[in-house]
Amino acid sequence: MSDQSAAAPHPHFRIYADIGIVVAILVLTNLIAHFTTPWANVATVPAAAIGLLILVRARGLDWAELGLSRRHWRSGAGYALGAVALVVSVIAVGALLPWTRPMFMNDHYATLSGALIASMVIIPLQTVIPEELAFRGVLHGALDRAWGFRGVAAAGSLLFGLWHIASSLGLTSGNVGFTRLFGGGILGTVIGVVLAVVATGIAGFVFSWLRKRSGSLIAPIALHWSLNGVGAIAAALVWHLST
């Protein structure tokens, strides 16, 4: 054995190092986005997602591992259409039923114009595409190299749930239905955070499954957008019909 081969790092160490770097950057990004200036939230996550993509490409992950290969576009689009249709149907039923309608009354989307801008511009560019690129693209690819899809499903889903702790701190106080159920105090806030982490962790698993099944980021991006974007429009419509 040559001195060069003996000094070379074990391939698994390189993979685990990549995962550690990606997770560390995601944690730092989340803290900057939510606990510094309000403007930091606008650009931090998209910039971090692009930076992570460049980083892991330089570290050897190919476009297929990142869910960005053109050969999977058709499969991704097919799953995307099915996912959006299902979510739109469920949201429509939820918005129409009297006992679930208050859950849609989110203070952030009290006007239809604001909800449309959020749904078509802010949510896709600031949230959905960057998060999917970071989690179902970069993190998915790194975790899959280390532990296969079981690692992606477990670690990826958990990390995606934890990612939403900061953004869910005002969940119950800003939602009429949740405030009625849990109150707006500290206990309500804690319950809201726990529910958000569990719900987004489950959503993360579904997004990851779609990513693996279709081979493309198109499908989880479409599902993620439909949950957030169509939900925002539904919230505005519920507010409009309730006032």
From TrEMBL:
The keyword Coiled coil does not apply. The chain crosses the membrane at residues 15-33, 39-56, 77-97, 109-126, 147-166, 186-210, 222-241. Pfam families: Rce1-like. GO terms for molecular function: metallopeptidase activity. The keyword Transmembrane applies. It comes from the Bacteria. Signal peptide: none annotated. Residues 116-229 form the CAAX prenyl protease 2/Lysostaphin resistance protein A-like domain. Keywords: Hydrolase, Membrane, Metalloprotease, Protease, Transmembrane, Transmembrane helix. This is CPBP family intramembrane metalloprotease. It comes from [Mycobacterium] fortunisiensis.
